[in-house]
# Entry
Amino acid sequence: MTIRYEANPPKVLPDIDTNESIRKFVEKIKIISKRCDAIHLTENVLGYQRVSPIKVGEIIRKDIPDLPITVSLRVRDKSESEISDFVDRCISVGFSGILILMGDPSQTGGKDSGQIPSLTVKKLREQGIDTKIDLYLSISNKPDFSKIGGKIDAKPKGFMTQVIQNIEQVQNLHNNLKEFSIIPILLYPSPKNEKSAKFLNLDLDSYSQKFEELVNKTHEITGDVLITSPSDFNGLNEFLGKTYSKV
# Structure
């Protein structure tokens, strides 16, 4: 069973000691790494400036060398040379994969670079980068398969989904994308994550009643699950400890 944990690196904020924020963040990863098989580090989620996933990932790799790490790469605000530098650094650090996505609009009003995730993956594959690190694209939890030809033609290793709402969505993705790895994202249904649930139009009460079953059935289908819990680290850590602990 592959259970991944999605971790948002600390925000960069005025009057906040960034080094101390990084230390606390890495300590959390050390704790939850005993409960999961891998982690995924996001990059500037919702467009807020955060510590680079490469910077924190490098620290984690040194402290927990056997923990597989994937990272998000926003192309919205990067040039081709910046994308190449990001990818080279990921390979150098020893990450296992990169999720290439557009990313949310910058909260600082930065201009879009015009880069497109599927074309970025295609270019990287033409350079042979996919032999050094796995490349992933994002996908809707209920895509129109007739309109994702560009993503399929890019031939990524696989797709990381939007937050899954039910097992039918997982089965549909698996049935239509059999040649790709599918990593469904699930939201840990904690009251502390209610804001995220509302943003996703997710019925938290109904979702929470069948969450463990949803995780298990999803994993039976795909062999891989990524769980996010943006506002309740302790709750998810406890859930994983009771249900899927490696210890």
Q: What stands out?
A: The radius of gyration is 17 Å. The chain has one domain: 3-243. The chain has a mean pLDDT of 93. Residues 18-32 form the longest helix (15 residues).
